[in-house]
UniProtKB/TrEMBL annotation, chain A:
Record keywords: 2Fe-2S, Iron, Iron-sulfur, Metal-binding
SUPFAM superfamilies linked to this entry: Ferredoxin reductase-like, C-terminal NADP-linked domain, Riboflavin synthase domain-like
Family annotation (PROSITE patterns): FAD_FR (PS51384)
Organism: Actinoplanes lutulentus
Top-level taxon of origin: Bacteria
Official protein name in the record: Ferredoxin-NADP reductase
TrEMBL record, chain B:
Residues passing through the membrane, by range: none
InterPro entries: OxRdtase_Mopterin-bd_dom, OxRdtase_Mopterin-bd_sf
Pfam families in the cross-refs: Oxidored_molyb (PF00174)
Highest rank taxon of the organism: Bacteria
UniProt protein name: DMSO/TMAO reductase YedYZ molybdopterin-dependent catalytic subunit
Stretches assigned to the Oxidoreductase molybdopterin-binding domain: 35-179
Classification via SUPFAM superfamilies: Oxidoreductase molybdopterin-binding domain
Start and end residues of each stretch annotated as Disordered: 1-21
Length: 240, 199
Protein backbone atom coordinates (compact mmCIF):
# COMPACT_ATOMS: atom_id res chain seq x y z
CA UNK A 1 0.00 0.00 0.00
CA UNK A 2 1.23 3.47 -0.80
CA UNK A 3 1.93 5.58 2.20
CA UNK A 4 1.09 9.21 1.60
CA UNK A 5 3.55 11.76 2.88
CA UNK A 6 1.15 14.20 4.46
CA UNK A 7 1.59 17.81 5.53
CA UNK A 8 1.72 18.24 9.29
CA UNK A 9 1.53 21.38 11.38
CA UNK A 10 4.77 21.50 13.37
CA UNK A 11 5.31 23.80 16.34
CA UNK A 12 8.61 25.58 16.88
CA UNK A 13 9.64 24.66 20.43
CA UNK A 14 13.12 26.20 20.52
CA UNK A 15 15.50 28.17 18.35
CA UNK A 16 19.25 28.69 18.55
CA UNK A 17 21.85 30.44 16.45
CA UNK A 18 24.64 28.17 15.18
CA UNK A 19 26.53 31.00 13.46
CA UNK A 20 25.69 34.64 12.78
CA UNK A 21 23.65 33.59 9.76
CA UNK A 22 22.46 30.06 10.49
CA UNK A 23 19.74 29.23 12.96
CA UNK A 24 18.36 25.92 14.19
CA UNK A 25 14.62 25.47 14.58
CA UNK A 26 13.53 22.67 16.90
CA UNK A 27 10.17 21.36 15.73
CA UNK A 28 7.58 19.27 17.46
CA UNK A 29 5.79 17.40 14.68
CA UNK A 30 2.60 15.60 15.76
CA UNK A 31 2.49 12.07 14.35
CA UNK A 32 6.13 12.11 13.21
CA UNK A 33 7.21 8.50 12.69
CA UNK A 34 10.93 9.13 12.75
CA UNK A 35 13.68 9.84 10.25
CA UNK A 36 17.08 8.63 9.14
CA UNK A 37 20.19 10.81 9.22
CA UNK A 38 20.57 12.49 5.82
CA UNK A 39 16.86 12.75 5.06
CA UNK A 40 15.13 16.05 4.43
CA UNK A 41 11.72 17.60 4.87
CA UNK A 42 9.66 19.88 2.69
CA UNK A 43 8.32 22.94 4.38
CA UNK A 44 5.40 25.06 3.25
CA UNK A 45 4.74 28.66 4.20
CA UNK A 46 1.44 30.39 3.48
CA UNK A 47 1.00 34.18 3.46
CA UNK A 48 -2.31 35.63 4.66
CA UNK A 49 -3.42 36.22 1.06
CA UNK A 50 -2.89 32.54 0.22
CA UNK A 51 0.51 32.90 -1.47
CA UNK A 52 2.48 29.71 -0.84
CA UNK A 53 6.19 28.96 -0.91
CA UNK A 54 7.76 25.52 -0.50
CA UNK A 55 11.38 24.56 0.10
CA UNK A 56 13.36 21.48 1.13
CA UNK A 57 15.64 21.47 4.19
CA UNK A 58 17.91 18.76 5.55
CA UNK A 59 17.28 17.46 9.04
CA UNK A 60 20.11 18.11 11.51
CA UNK A 61 18.97 15.94 14.38
CA UNK A 62 19.18 12.20 14.94
CA UNK A 63 15.84 10.64 15.72
CA UNK A 64 15.00 8.19 18.48
CA UNK A 65 11.80 7.54 20.41
CA UNK A 66 13.32 9.43 23.33
CA UNK A 67 14.33 12.41 21.18
CA UNK A 68 11.46 12.68 18.72
CA UNK A 69 11.88 16.30 17.64
CA UNK A 70 12.99 17.42 14.19
CA UNK A 71 15.75 20.02 14.07
CA UNK A 72 16.43 22.04 10.94
CA UNK A 73 19.43 24.32 10.60
CA UNK A 74 18.64 27.09 8.15
CA UNK A 75 21.36 29.11 6.44
CA UNK A 76 20.10 32.61 5.69
CA UNK A 77 20.46 33.52 2.02
CA UNK A 78 20.17 37.28 1.85
CA UNK A 79 18.36 37.22 -1.48
CA UNK A 80 16.24 34.25 -0.43
CA UNK A 81 12.50 34.28 -0.07
CA UNK A 82 12.09 31.65 2.63
CA UNK A 83 15.35 31.35 4.58
CA UNK A 84 15.39 34.94 5.99
CA UNK A 85 11.87 34.32 7.29
CA UNK A 86 12.98 31.12 9.02
CA UNK A 87 16.14 32.65 10.50
CA UNK A 88 14.87 36.09 11.45
CA UNK A 89 11.09 36.09 11.81
CA UNK A 90 9.96 32.72 13.16
CA UNK A 91 9.64 32.53 16.94
CA UNK A 92 9.04 29.81 19.49
CA UNK A 93 5.36 28.87 19.39
CA UNK A 94 4.92 29.55 15.66
CA UNK A 95 3.55 26.81 13.45
CA UNK A 96 5.14 25.65 10.20
CA UNK A 97 3.84 22.99 7.82
CA UNK A 98 6.28 20.18 7.14
CA UNK A 99 6.19 16.83 5.44
CA UNK A 100 8.68 14.03 5.36
CA UNK A 101 10.98 12.46 6.01
CA UNK A 102 12.10 12.24 2.39
CA UNK A 103 14.93 10.43 0.62
CA UNK A 104 16.54 7.04 1.04
CA UNK A 105 19.80 7.45 -0.88
CA UNK A 106 21.72 10.20 0.91
CA UNK A 107 21.17 8.50 4.26
CA UNK A 108 23.35 6.65 6.71
CA UNK A 109 21.90 3.67 8.55
CA UNK A 110 23.46 2.36 11.76
CA UNK A 111 23.50 -1.12 10.21
CA UNK A 112 26.29 0.12 7.90
CA UNK A 113 29.59 -1.12 9.28
CA UNK A 114 32.08 0.51 6.88
CA UNK A 115 34.10 3.52 7.97
CA UNK A 116 32.41 6.77 7.00
CA UNK A 117 33.90 9.82 5.36
CA UNK A 118 31.82 12.99 5.49
CA UNK A 119 32.81 16.01 3.41
CA UNK A 120 30.90 19.21 4.03
CA UNK A 121 31.01 22.55 2.26
CA UNK A 122 29.41 25.34 4.33
CA UNK A 123 25.82 24.58 5.32
CA UNK A 124 26.19 21.20 3.60
CA UNK A 125 27.25 20.06 7.05
CA UNK A 126 23.63 19.83 8.21
CA UNK A 127 22.66 16.30 7.01
CA UNK A 128 26.18 15.09 7.87
CA UNK A 129 25.74 16.39 11.42
CA UNK A 130 22.62 14.22 11.69
CA UNK A 131 24.82 11.23 10.78
CA UNK A 132 27.43 12.16 13.40
CA UNK A 133 24.69 12.53 15.99
CA UNK A 134 23.28 9.11 15.08
CA UNK A 135 26.65 7.38 15.02
CA UNK A 136 27.41 4.49 17.34
CA UNK A 137 30.91 3.03 17.27
CA UNK A 138 31.61 3.20 13.55
CA UNK A 139 34.75 5.17 12.67
CA UNK A 140 33.76 8.56 11.20
CA UNK A 141 35.84 11.31 9.68
CA UNK A 142 34.48 14.73 8.82
CA UNK A 143 36.22 17.22 6.56
CA UNK A 144 34.40 20.51 6.96
CA UNK A 145 35.14 23.45 4.69
CA UNK A 146 34.13 26.89 5.97
CA UNK A 147 35.04 30.45 5.01
CA UNK A 148 36.19 31.51 8.46
CA UNK A 149 36.14 29.97 11.96
CA UNK A 150 33.04 32.05 12.72
CA UNK A 151 31.17 30.31 9.88
CA UNK A 152 31.52 26.84 11.40
CA UNK A 153 28.19 25.56 12.69
CA UNK A 154 28.13 23.08 15.60
CA UNK A 155 31.81 23.90 16.32
CA UNK A 156 31.47 23.51 20.08
CA UNK A 157 29.49 20.29 19.81
CA UNK A 158 31.96 18.83 17.31
CA UNK A 159 34.89 19.61 19.61
CA UNK A 160 33.04 17.99 22.48
CA UNK A 161 32.18 14.89 20.46
CA UNK A 162 35.77 14.48 19.22
CA UNK A 163 36.94 14.62 22.85
CA UNK A 164 34.31 12.29 24.25
CA UNK A 165 33.62 9.85 21.43
CA UNK A 166 36.57 7.74 20.24
CA UNK A 167 36.51 7.08 16.51
CA UNK A 168 35.39 10.53 15.38
CA UNK A 169 37.86 12.87 13.68
CA UNK A 170 37.08 16.35 12.42
CA UNK A 171 39.28 18.38 10.12
CA UNK A 172 38.44 21.97 9.23
CA UNK A 173 39.41 23.61 5.96
CA UNK A 174 39.31 27.42 6.04
CA UNK A 175 38.91 29.10 2.67
CA UNK A 176 39.10 32.82 3.62
CA UNK A 177 40.50 33.22 7.12
CA UNK A 178 42.15 30.52 9.19
CA UNK A 179 42.66 30.65 12.95
CA UNK A 180 46.13 30.96 14.46
CA UNK A 181 48.22 27.85 13.82
CA UNK A 182 45.96 26.36 11.15
CA UNK A 183 48.07 27.46 8.20
CA UNK A 184 47.05 29.67 5.31
CA UNK A 185 43.48 29.64 3.98
CA UNK A 186 43.00 27.13 1.17
CA UNK A 187 40.38 25.22 -0.70
CA UNK A 188 39.78 21.51 -0.34
CA UNK A 189 42.21 19.60 -2.55
CA UNK A 190 43.70 16.16 -3.18
CA UNK A 191 46.11 16.51 -0.25
CA UNK A 192 43.29 17.40 2.16
CA UNK A 193 41.21 14.38 1.26
CA UNK A 194 44.23 12.09 1.03
CA UNK A 195 45.43 13.09 4.52
CA UNK A 196 42.12 13.42 6.33
CA UNK A 197 39.90 10.92 4.55
CA UNK A 198 40.13 7.13 4.58
CA UNK A 199 42.29 5.13 2.17
CA UNK A 200 40.18 3.68 -0.67
CA UNK A 201 41.26 0.17 0.46
CA UNK A 202 39.13 0.64 3.58
CA UNK A 203 36.11 0.96 1.28
CA UNK A 204 34.54 3.77 3.27
CA UNK A 205 31.04 5.05 2.62
CA UNK A 206 31.53 8.64 1.47
CA UNK A 207 28.95 11.42 1.77
CA UNK A 208 29.59 14.80 0.19
CA UNK A 209 27.25 17.75 0.67
CA UNK A 210 27.60 21.41 -0.21
CA UNK A 211 27.31 23.88 -3.07
CA UNK A 212 27.51 22.33 -6.53
CA UNK A 213 31.08 23.42 -7.33
CA UNK A 214 32.36 22.13 -4.01
CA UNK A 215 30.63 18.78 -4.39
CA UNK A 216 31.89 18.36 -7.95
CA UNK A 217 35.46 19.02 -6.80
CA UNK A 218 35.35 16.73 -3.76
CA UNK A 219 33.58 13.88 -5.58
CA UNK A 220 36.02 14.08 -8.50
CA UNK A 221 38.95 13.90 -6.06
CA UNK A 222 37.47 10.87 -4.31
CA UNK A 223 37.06 9.05 -7.62
CA UNK A 224 40.58 10.05 -8.71
CA UNK A 225 41.98 8.72 -5.43
CA UNK A 226 40.40 5.35 -6.18
CA UNK A 227 37.11 5.38 -4.30
CA UNK A 228 34.36 3.50 -6.14
CA UNK A 229 31.86 6.02 -7.57
CA UNK A 230 29.04 3.87 -6.20
CA UNK A 231 30.36 4.48 -2.66
CA UNK A 232 30.28 8.24 -3.08
CA UNK A 233 26.89 9.74 -2.34
CA UNK A 234 26.34 13.40 -3.06
CA UNK A 235 23.83 16.07 -2.29
CA UNK A 236 24.17 19.47 -3.92
CA UNK A 237 22.42 22.75 -3.44
CA UNK A 238 22.43 26.22 -4.90
CA UNK A 239 22.97 27.47 -8.40
CA UNK A 240 25.64 26.06 -10.64
CA UNK B 1 -5.12 26.48 1.98
CA UNK B 2 -2.58 25.61 4.65
CA UNK B 3 -2.14 27.31 7.99
CA UNK B 4 -1.07 30.94 7.77
CA UNK B 5 2.59 31.55 8.56
CA UNK B 6 2.65 34.54 10.89
CA UNK B 7 4.62 37.39 9.37
CA UNK B 8 5.34 35.64 6.08
CA UNK B 9 4.77 37.88 3.09
CA UNK B 10 6.69 36.06 0.41
CA UNK B 11 8.13 37.90 -2.51
CA UNK B 12 4.81 38.81 -4.06
CA UNK B 13 6.11 37.72 -7.40
CA UNK B 14 3.81 38.34 -10.29
CA UNK B 15 2.02 35.13 -10.93
CA UNK B 16 3.81 33.20 -13.65
CA UNK B 17 1.61 31.03 -15.82
CA UNK B 18 4.60 28.79 -16.57
CA UNK B 19 5.22 27.93 -12.93
CA UNK B 20 3.64 24.70 -11.59
CA UNK B 21 2.32 24.61 -7.98
CA UNK B 22 4.99 24.66 -5.26
CA UNK B 23 7.76 25.72 -7.65
CA UNK B 24 9.88 28.86 -7.63
CA UNK B 25 11.73 30.50 -10.48
CA UNK B 26 15.49 30.31 -10.78
CA UNK B 27 17.82 31.86 -13.33
CA UNK B 28 20.73 29.63 -12.29
CA UNK B 29 21.03 26.08 -13.45
CA UNK B 30 21.18 24.00 -10.26
CA UNK B 31 22.54 20.46 -10.35
CA UNK B 32 21.02 17.40 -8.71
CA UNK B 33 22.97 14.15 -8.90
CA UNK B 34 23.23 11.21 -6.58
CA UNK B 35 26.95 10.69 -7.03
CA UNK B 36 30.10 11.78 -8.80
CA UNK B 37 29.84 13.08 -12.36
CA UNK B 38 30.89 10.41 -14.86
CA UNK B 39 33.13 11.49 -17.74
CA UNK B 40 32.37 9.60 -20.93
CA UNK B 41 34.78 9.91 -23.88
CA UNK B 42 32.85 10.46 -27.11
CA UNK B 43 34.59 7.56 -28.86
CA UNK B 44 33.27 5.23 -26.13
CA UNK B 45 29.79 6.71 -26.05
CA UNK B 46 26.92 4.54 -27.25
CA UNK B 47 23.13 4.66 -26.95
CA UNK B 48 21.00 1.51 -27.16
CA UNK B 49 17.26 0.87 -27.27
CA UNK B 50 16.53 -2.68 -26.12
CA UNK B 51 13.04 -4.02 -26.82
CA UNK B 52 11.12 -6.44 -24.61
CA UNK B 53 12.22 -9.25 -26.93
CA UNK B 54 15.89 -8.33 -26.51
CA UNK B 55 16.32 -6.75 -29.92
CA UNK B 56 18.86 -3.94 -29.82
CA UNK B 57 19.13 -0.69 -31.76
CA UNK B 58 22.39 1.17 -31.13
CA UNK B 59 24.02 4.40 -32.19
CA UNK B 60 27.61 5.47 -31.62
CA UNK B 61 28.50 9.17 -31.37
CA UNK B 62 29.03 9.60 -35.10
CA UNK B 63 25.81 7.84 -36.03
CA UNK B 64 23.86 9.67 -33.36
CA UNK B 65 25.01 13.17 -34.28
CA UNK B 66 24.33 12.42 -37.96
CA UNK B 67 20.62 11.99 -37.19
CA UNK B 68 18.28 14.91 -37.92
CA UNK B 69 18.37 17.26 -34.92
CA UNK B 70 16.05 19.89 -33.54
CA UNK B 71 16.59 23.03 -31.50
CA UNK B 72 13.77 23.61 -29.04
CA UNK B 73 12.93 25.79 -26.04
CA UNK B 74 11.11 24.36 -23.03
CA UNK B 75 10.50 24.98 -19.32
CA UNK B 76 12.04 22.57 -16.81
CA UNK B 77 10.83 21.76 -13.29
CA UNK B 78 12.94 20.06 -10.62
CA UNK B 79 11.27 18.19 -7.77
CA UNK B 80 13.56 20.12 -5.38
CA UNK B 81 11.27 23.10 -6.20
CA UNK B 82 13.17 25.17 -8.73
CA UNK B 83 11.88 25.80 -12.23
CA UNK B 84 13.77 27.33 -15.11
CA UNK B 85 11.77 28.78 -17.95
CA UNK B 86 12.74 29.02 -21.59
CA UNK B 87 15.76 26.68 -21.72
CA UNK B 88 17.11 25.97 -25.20
CA UNK B 89 18.50 22.60 -26.21
CA UNK B 90 19.60 20.81 -29.33
CA UNK B 91 19.18 17.11 -29.88
CA UNK B 92 17.38 14.24 -31.52
CA UNK B 93 13.67 13.60 -31.07
CA UNK B 94 12.85 10.21 -29.57
CA UNK B 95 10.42 9.79 -32.48
CA UNK B 96 13.45 9.63 -34.77
CA UNK B 97 15.18 7.02 -32.62
CA UNK B 98 12.06 4.86 -32.34
CA UNK B 99 11.31 4.99 -36.09
CA UNK B 100 12.53 1.42 -36.76
CA UNK B 101 11.86 -0.05 -33.33
CA UNK B 102 9.14 -2.66 -33.13
CA UNK B 103 7.70 -3.05 -29.67
CA UNK B 104 4.40 -3.69 -27.95
CA UNK B 105 5.67 -2.60 -24.54
CA UNK B 106 4.10 0.42 -22.87
CA UNK B 107 6.90 1.35 -20.47
CA UNK B 108 10.57 2.18 -20.61
CA UNK B 109 13.46 2.36 -18.20
CA UNK B 110 16.14 4.91 -19.02
CA UNK B 111 19.66 3.78 -18.08
CA UNK B 112 22.69 6.00 -17.59
CA UNK B 113 26.44 5.79 -17.31
CA UNK B 114 27.08 5.62 -13.57
CA UNK B 115 24.10 3.33 -12.99
CA UNK B 116 21.22 5.82 -12.70
CA UNK B 117 17.80 4.66 -13.87
CA UNK B 118 14.38 6.26 -14.23
CA UNK B 119 11.09 4.92 -15.59
CA UNK B 120 9.00 6.76 -18.20
CA UNK B 121 5.92 5.46 -20.05
CA UNK B 122 6.60 5.11 -23.78
CA UNK B 123 3.77 7.50 -24.67
CA UNK B 124 5.56 10.24 -22.75
CA UNK B 125 8.61 9.88 -24.96
CA UNK B 126 6.89 9.99 -28.36
CA UNK B 127 5.07 12.54 -30.51
CA UNK B 128 7.48 15.38 -29.92
CA UNK B 129 7.48 15.11 -26.13
CA UNK B 130 11.09 14.01 -25.52
CA UNK B 131 14.61 14.30 -26.90
CA UNK B 132 18.16 13.09 -26.41
CA UNK B 133 20.12 16.34 -26.27
CA UNK B 134 23.80 17.17 -26.68
CA UNK B 135 23.75 20.99 -26.61
CA UNK B 136 22.47 23.49 -24.06
CA UNK B 137 22.31 27.18 -25.01
CA UNK B 138 24.39 26.57 -28.10
CA UNK B 139 27.24 24.87 -26.22
CA UNK B 140 28.11 21.18 -25.88
CA UNK B 141 26.28 19.82 -22.85
CA UNK B 142 28.57 20.00 -19.80
CA UNK B 143 29.13 16.73 -17.87
CA UNK B 144 27.65 18.33 -14.72
CA UNK B 145 24.40 18.78 -16.58
CA UNK B 146 24.41 15.30 -18.06
CA UNK B 147 26.73 15.56 -21.06
CA UNK B 148 27.61 14.28 -23.50
CA UNK B 149 23.96 13.25 -23.89
CA UNK B 150 20.96 13.44 -21.60
CA UNK B 151 17.29 12.70 -21.96
CA UNK B 152 14.89 15.66 -21.84
CA UNK B 153 11.25 14.99 -20.95
CA UNK B 154 10.21 18.53 -20.02
CA UNK B 155 6.60 17.81 -19.09
CA UNK B 156 7.71 15.60 -16.18
CA UNK B 157 9.83 16.52 -13.14
CA UNK B 158 13.43 16.86 -14.21
CA UNK B 159 14.71 13.69 -12.51
CA UNK B 160 12.98 11.85 -15.37
CA UNK B 161 15.34 13.62 -17.78
CA UNK B 162 18.17 11.17 -17.13
CA UNK B 163 21.69 12.60 -17.34
CA UNK B 164 24.48 10.63 -19.06
CA UNK B 165 21.83 8.46 -20.67
CA UNK B 166 23.04 5.39 -22.55
CA UNK B 167 19.94 3.33 -23.11
CA UNK B 168 16.22 2.80 -23.02
CA UNK B 169 14.89 -0.58 -22.05
CA UNK B 170 11.34 -1.42 -23.15
CA UNK B 171 9.23 -2.98 -20.40
CA UNK B 172 5.78 -4.58 -20.40
CA UNK B 173 5.20 -3.44 -16.83
CA UNK B 174 6.06 -0.19 -15.11
CA UNK B 175 9.00 -0.60 -12.73
CA UNK B 176 10.53 1.98 -10.40
CA UNK B 177 13.88 3.54 -11.26
CA UNK B 178 16.48 4.95 -8.85
CA UNK B 179 14.55 7.78 -7.16
CA UNK B 180 11.18 6.13 -7.69
CA UNK B 181 12.32 3.12 -5.63
CA UNK B 182 13.22 5.62 -2.90
CA UNK B 183 9.75 7.05 -2.52
CA UNK B 184 9.50 9.48 -5.41
CA UNK B 185 6.45 9.40 -7.65
CA UNK B 186 6.28 6.81 -10.44
CA UNK B 187 5.05 9.36 -13.00
CA UNK B 188 6.07 12.82 -11.75
CA UNK B 189 3.73 15.35 -13.34
CA UNK B 190 4.72 18.80 -11.98
CA UNK B 191 1.29 20.28 -12.78
CA UNK B 192 -0.34 17.71 -10.50
CA UNK B 193 2.54 18.09 -8.03
CA UNK B 194 3.36 14.37 -8.10
CA UNK B 195 6.57 14.63 -6.10
CA UNK B 196 6.38 11.60 -3.85
CA UNK B 197 4.54 8.28 -3.74
CA UNK B 198 0.89 8.88 -2.97
CA UNK B 199 0.87 12.51 -4.20
Amino acid sequence: MIKRITWRAATVTAVRWETKTARTLVLDVPGWSGHLPGQHVDIRLTADDGYVAQRSYSIASAWSPSSPSVELTIQRLDDGEVSPYLTDVVEVGDKIEVRGAIGNWFVWRDTQTAPVLLIAGGSGVVPLMAMIRARGRQPFRLIYSVRTPEDAAYAEELRHRVRENPGLDVHFVYTRKAPEGAGAPKRIDVATINSHGWPPDFEPDCYVCGPTGFVETAADILVALGHAPTRVRTERFGGA
Amino acid sequence: MGIISRGFGGRRRESLPGLPPGQYLTHDFPVLSAGPTPRIPLDKWKFTITTETGEKHSWDWKEFTALPSEEFTVDIHCVTKWSKLGTTWKGVSLDTLFEDVESAADYTMAHSYGGYTTNVPLDDLLEGKAWLVYEFDGEPLHPEHGGPVRLIVPHLYFWKSAKWVNGLEMLNDDEPGFWEAGGYHMYGDPWREQRYQGD
